[in-house]
Amino acid sequence: MKAPPRLQALIDEGLIDTVVRQLMSGKEAEVYVVRCGDDTRCAKVYKEAIHRSFRQAVDYTENRKVKNTRQARAMAKGTRFGRQAQEAAWQSAEVDALYRLAAAGVRVPRPYNFLEGVLLMELVANAEGDAAPRLNDCDFTAEQALAHHATLVAEVVRMLCAGVVHGDLSEFNILLGADGPVIIDLPQAVDAAGNNHAKRMLLRDVNNLRDFFGRFAPALLASDYGHEIWALYERGVLRTDSVLSGRFEHRAGPVDLGAVVREIDDARAEDAARRLRQQGPAG
């Protein structure tokens, strides 16, 4: 196919030889299958983030550092340059997270390059060599669901040990590759130690996994891996090989009404986002 204008810079630099086809299109990005020499990879072309809510952007970007003080001031003032800088920071957050998590051994696509708002990375393939499907497009036996759930909970732990919380993990941004699930879409990734919303996001990520795989293996619906994982993390004893039970004893204490309201708001936003994703492919 004819190369989209946004990919021309990578072709000119010799990073891409040909564009094979468009793989998906969503509100945040378009993804293309490309050829790089003898390798087949994918190129994620970011769109402007005009559809993100301000509240969610603040939650995800809390404590993200900008080295350039001029950019930081412009972002704070909301100038045109500041909005451009904020968008660049949002895109680079996924790139940084991918490199960080790949180095930690997390099951994410291998990143190769980032140029002109385009992320070049590994194409996750199924056993036949075709682009891998998302989990929400798959059906599982109870045994398969339990196995994939265990794999992904272990990956959440590995990510947290690397200091990262995905922030938007669900069946819509996990691919079923030839050798198991692969986590994708990380622009929302947050620093676990530096973001006040990290615990809430991690619990939501883990609960999304529980709810999805619980459709096929109902025994999972009674589990509480999220609170167990976070409690170990807070105590400084979480390890990549920590043995988890899926059980957690909640202690009675004062109710944080603000946190309850935020949970309700997030649940509504997540439900709305799910309905949108079910209507069409995600970016």
Provide tags for this entry.
single chain; about 280 residues; alpha+beta; Transferase(Phosphotransferase), domain 1; 5-stranded antiparallel beta sheet; two-stranded antiparallel ribbon; globular
What features would you describe in this structure?
With 283 residues, the protein is α+β, with helices and mostly antiparallel strands. The two termini are 20 Å apart. The protein is built from eight helices and nine strands. Strand 7 and strand 8 form a beta hairpin. 41% of the residues lie in helices and 16% in strands. A five-stranded antiparallel β-sheet has the order 1-2-3-5-4. Strands 6-9 form a two-stranded antiparallel sheet. The protein has a two-stranded antiparallel sheet with strand order 7-8. Mean pLDDT is 84; it is low at 51-56 and 70-76. It has one domain (5-279): Transferase(Phosphotransferase), domain 1. It has helices spanning 8-12, 54-61, 69-77, 80-103, 142-161, 198-213, 225-234, 257-279; strands spanning 18-25, 29-36, 39-46, 111-115, 118-122, 164-165, 174-177, 180-183, 190-191.
